[in-house]
Write a structure and sequence with these properties.
- By secondary structure, the protein is an alpha/beta fold.
- The chain has a domain of 219 residues: NAD(P)-binding Rossmann-like Domain (Rossmann fold, 3-Layer(aba) Sandwich), CATH 3.40.50.720.
- The chain has a 7-stranded parallel β-sheet, with helices on both faces. The chain has a two-stranded parallel sheet with strand order 7-10.
- Helix 1 packs across helix 8, helix 5 runs parallel beside helix 6 and helix 9 packs across helix 11.
- Bound molecules: nicotinamide-adenine-dinucleotide (NAD).
- The site of nicotinamide-adenine-dinucleotide has 29 residues, from helix 1, strand 2, helix 5, strand 5 and strand 7.
Length: 320
């Protein structure tokens, strides 16, 4: 793979990264994945590698190995930086490791991109940076108030991105994902996100476990809409900023359980457990800036995305 004819996806074996790889390859791009498989799974990429063996290459390495990373990024058009330790809970338990991967790792991705002549870096950041501010919806002009080590690392990544845009003329754009869901999302990790956990339990005939009273809210977005935002971000001239990527709709966990119950055709009765520390209470995004600057528009409703996700889980042989 030579010239500017390929893109790099860090974390490409993960949930969001694997969908991004497919979309790029289906658009005729060649893709290099950098992943150490800490949480990524080879099953996420296997169908793509089988279908497009000449367009997708997997580099099994850690983003913190700078020299190797520089070699991978040399001459890439766009670097889509998705690799991270993504669990808030895990960051509370091991903030040093989270900092190492998410801050040092992101800095090394930016350095490798700068030195490799990369045209643009699109990186994943998070709604977590807004913390517990009671202002809703969350908009980009709000001051970040991280309440977990994970959120701190994502915020520092954003600041590095802006600084690299300013002082090294490396165009970067951060996408603040809200709660992403869809096929390929791992339900088995002890840090699994709420939708895959609810779905796998529902399909196994079990009720969902909710930490807290279920009235906490999230802004859920289907993974294909997140991929579309990445592709738009790469094509745009906007840089040195971070943009919200969400549906702009607030949904409580209790409401989510209801919609899921309708899809699986059974009333689900949540089993409530004590709330977890460092978890944000309410979240919903103002997405007008992403609309205005990159023409982003979420296309998938919660019910449609959930339906497609349930269907995917039904085709997997997963144990709960
Ligand atoms: N899923 C969400 O709802 C959500 C919300 C906000 C932000 N994000 C961000 O989106 C990105 C992707 O998240 P995801 O949900 O797909 O998570 P994921 O865990 O499925 O994917 C992360 C990938 O990064 C890889 N990785 C981790 N450490 C690495 C390292 N040191 N070197 C190389 N690869 C490494 C993992 O193996 C995995 O494949 C992350 O940056 C995350 O912080 C996700």
């Amino acid at each position: 793979m030579v010239g500017n004819s390929f893109d790099v996806v860090t974390g490409g074996a993960g949930f969001i990264g694997s969908h991004l790889c497919r979309a790029l390859v289906e658009q005729g791009r060649r893709v290099r994945v950098v992943d150490n498989f800490a949480t990524g799974r080879s099953e996420n990429l296997a169908p793509l590698l089988e279908q497009y063996p000449d367009q997708c290459e997997v580099c099994r390495q850690d983003i913190r190995q700078l020299e190797e990373l520089k070699a991978v990024c040399l001459g890439a058009a766009t670097v889509y930086h998705q690799a991270a330790l993504t669990s808030v809970q895990q960051s509370v338990e091991d903030p040093l490791e989270c900092n190492s991967v998410n801050v040092e790792g992101t800095l090394k991705v930016l350095l490798a991109a700068r030195d490799g002549g990369v045209k643009k870096v699109i990186f994943a950041t998070s709604t977590a940076i807004y913390g517990n501010s009671e202002v809703l919806p969350k908009h980009e002009a709000m001051a970040p108030e991280p309440v977990s080590p994970y959120a701190v690392t994502k915020y520092i990544g954003e600041v590095y991105g802006r600084v690299f845009s300013d002082i090294y003329q490396l165009p970067t754009l951060g996408l603040r994902y809200f709660n992403v869901f869809g096929p390929n999302q791992d339900p088995k990790s002890e840090y699994a996100a709420v939708i895959p956990r609810f779905i796998t339990r529902a399909l196994a005939g079990k009720d969902p476990i909710i930490f807290g009273d279920g009235e906490q809210s999230r802004d859920f977005i289907f993974v294909e809409d997140v991929v579309a935002a990445n592709l738009r971000a790469a094509r745009s001239d906007v840089h040195g900023k971070s943009l919200n990527v969400a549906c702009g709709q607030q949904c409580t966990l209790n409401q989510l359980v209801e919609v899921l119950g309708e899809i699986v055709g059974r009333k689900l009765t949540p089993d409530y457990h004590p709330a977890r520390p460092a978890e944000v209470r309410h979240s919903v995004a103002d997405i007008s800036l992403a609309r205005e600057l990159i023409g982003f528009e979420p296309a998938t409703s919660l019910a449609e995305g959930l339906g497609r996700t349930v269907q995917w889980f039904q085709n997997q042989k997963l144990e709960v």
